[in-house]
Amino acid sequence: MDNPTTISRLLPAEHLVIGLKARTLEEALGQLIERLDEADQITDRAALDALVADEIESGEAPSLGDRAILMHFRTDAVDELVVAVGTANKPFAFAPDDSPEADLLILILTPRTATRPYLKTLAALSEFLADPAIPDALVSADSVDEFLDVVASRDLVIRPELTVRDLMSRDVHAVSPETLLSEALRLMARHRRRGVPVVSDNGEVLGMVTEQELLQHFLPQILGTAPRDGSPPPVKDLEVRDVMQRSVMCLPEDQLISDVLGTMLTERVSQFPVVKEGKLVGFLSRTDLIQKLLEKSI
């Protein structure tokens, strides 16, 4: 199992500058970018420098707390999210001239497509710096080792975005189009499922049979006129192919659970086959999702 991403893992020693020698934000950023470039984290320095120059000219510099400035750039000049931090013995100013000074600079660079990792990293850093004692201790650190000791003392896990793969059931109960409805009903009752996927011989999802189809078929027959001897009326069986839903929403393994939750609410869908390369590999129901989210939160 992969080790969880923490703030300390995002801040190796080679991404830190203790004692920034900068009078302005532009100079401070330049030193952090130079440090990342030396660590081979930047693939297109010229493009990044141009992006930074445009941002500095805009005069916008969001803060995290009273003394920390955050600069974030979405750019193709990096292949993955990277974070650099610098501290200054003397606060540096930034445009516009009447903006407050800062002595802690955080730089986050993310690829253009990595919005969610950035948001989770930003949330973790905001929580980390919420205690005023932490920025004070970071800026007071005289060395990289002292800085990292402060980080380790309050380290936080940056929780990954959950995907369908994390919560889906891999114990999939499927039927073929030729399966009798009565057998599908028994299968659903045995495994407490409100529906089962219908698959071809090679595992391709062809449809779904749910409680709705079963009720629509069996209930009118069961409620029909009973024979004179009082025995239940005979139930005419059909094959799944005769009543299954043929338009089915399937999920890929790597779909974000946050997106699935939105679909459940807007589309009123409560269960999904999960596919990989067109083949059934799992199943995700609303019940599965709730139970497993509760397990992960305890």
TrEMBL record:
Q: List the Gene3D superfamilies hit by this protein, alphabetically.
A: CBS-domain, Mannitol-specific EII, Chain A
What the entry lists under Pfam families is as follows:
CBS (PF00571), PTS_EIIA_2 (PF00359)
Q: Which SMART domains match?
A: CBS (SM00116)
Record flagged with keyword Lipoprotein: no
Instruction: Give residue ranges for domain CBS.
Output: 168-225, 244-298
Query: In this protein, which residues make up the domain named PTS EIIA type-2?
Result: 9-154
Could you tell me which SUPFAM superfamilies the record lists for this protein? Answer: CBS-domain pair, Phoshotransferase/anion transport protein
Keywords of the record, alphabetical order, are: CBS domain, Repeat
- UniProt superkingdom: Bacteria
* InterPro entries for this protein: CBS_dom, CBS_dom_sf, CBS_domain-containing, PTrfase/Anion_transptr, PTS_EIIA_type-2_dom
Quote the PANTHER family the UniProt record gives.
CBS DOMAIN-CONTAINING PROTEIN CBSX2, CHLOROPLASTIC, CBS DOMAIN-CONTAINING PROTEIN DDB_G0289609
Q: What is this protein called?
A: CBS domain-containing protein
**Provenance organism:** Candidatus Kutchimonas denitrificans
Q: From which lineage does this chain's organism come? A: Bacteria, Pseudomonadati, Gemmatimonadota, Gemmatimonadia, Candidatus Palauibacterales
